[in-house]
Amino acid sequence: MPRTDAVLADPRLGTAAERLGRALVKAAVVRAQERARSGEIPPAAVADAAVAGLPEHATTLRPVVNATGVLLHTNLGRAPLSPAAREAVAAVSGCADVEYDLATGRRGARGRGALEALRAACPAAEDAIVVNNNAAALVLAATALAGGREIVLSRGEMVEIGDGFRIPELLAATGARLREVGTTNRTTAADYAAALGPETGFVLKVHPSNFRIEGFTAEAAVAELAPLDAPLVVDIGSGLLAHEPLLPDEPDAAGVLAAGADLVTASGDKLLGGPQAGLILGRAEAVRRLRRHPLYRALRVDKLTLAALEATLRGPEPPVARALHADVAGLRERAERLVKELSAHGLAVDAVDSEATVGGGGAPGVVLPSAAVALPGGYERPLRERRVVGRLEHGRLLLDLRAVPPAEDALLERTVLAAAGAVAAREEG
Ligand SMILES: *Cc1c(COP(=O)(O)O)cnc(C)c1O
């Protein structure tokens, strides 16, 4: 058995150690030695096996192809960044002028470019700040505007966003008291008005972004709540800055501010298509109160987020918007092209119609017609292990193309072919 030091002297592993760090390379060597010890590979092949077993990156986070048909998949990192945003992140990942004015040599306003881009994209907002995510935006608003007093909200909007994250619990954790008004299915402006008093911090409206109630329902519109004698904060969830005709029921920041809200909070990595961030837009005075609160310092974002957000706002249409607007005929063509290529290699595949959704990020109940490559269910695991995640439906694996950028079709094809080998080997074995 070759000694670890001797294997590490292999120049390929030396180069890798500079890129990945010695610990990760050594771990690959140890794994290769174990395989040799168990007789799986000859001792002479240890260095080659270690090279083959090196991780691609010094992180265990790995890129994934999202073929689930869910545009915003929280478990898969929500919105993929646009090429412009990725470049911007890479460009400022060293030192950058995040809080330094190169013209004067003095300290500069942190994240000014991103905030200017945000205000330009949403002129209805007098001012804006950016925090870590929408949950942080709500915490900051609750702390700065309610400060242990009451937040008035509808019983129909006491929502759970996912994985046990409940907005009422988050708000209560700040020390604010929740003043519930109305009922699960019906709440009117009069219900809110009756609850206001000296203990009111603000009125909060929350968009139920992952469910819909139907039937005998009523909710108070933003325009009805704006005249009430209390600040009005609206959590729109998805981060649409302007109205999106394809998603008629999804609230947008411009519309909500025009209707009279003081503050809007939203996520940066849902329908806006940018990095994880919490956007807070609205009246100058309300935004100033949040920016001046000591908690803001704990929730602010870093240069990578600022760069990605600004490039998302100023750059070309991000992948989420493209996926949303992609026409189904184009998706079918892509599915048919993939099926033709894969069939030529002898695979039993079909191009089928499919139904995509926006996902937990918004627009519950909206079905987006889509197209998919359908494979036998046995492909699910080998593809997942090769970082392509599809959707099982009636025993078949669908690779829905709506959330897959067209530039990833070639990767998808190569990966299916590689998985076909594994499927065939398992059937033989
Ligand atoms: C997603 C969502 C949140 C949480 O946003 P994060 O950016 O994930 O913290 C809060 N409110 C609503 C209505 C949402 O849809």
From TrEMBL:
Transferase in keyword set: yes
Protein name per its UniProtKB record: L-seryl-tRNA(Sec) selenium transferase
Gene3D superfamilies: 3.90.1150.180, Type I PLP-dependent aspartate aminotransferase-like (Major domain)
Source species: Thermomonospora echinospora
One Pfam family cited in the UniProt record for this chain: SelA
Family per record: Belongs to the SelA family.
Database matches in PANTHER family: L-SERYL-TRNA(SEC) SELENIUM TRANSFERASE
Origin: domain of life: Bacteria
Signal peptide: none
N6-(pyridoxal phosphate)lysine modification, residue list: 270
Main localization, broad class: cytoplasm
Cofactor: pyridoxal 5'-phosphate
EC id: 2.9.1.1
Catalytic activity, as annotated: L-seryl-tRNA(Sec) + selenophosphate + H(+) = L-selenocysteinyl-tRNA(Sec) + phosphate
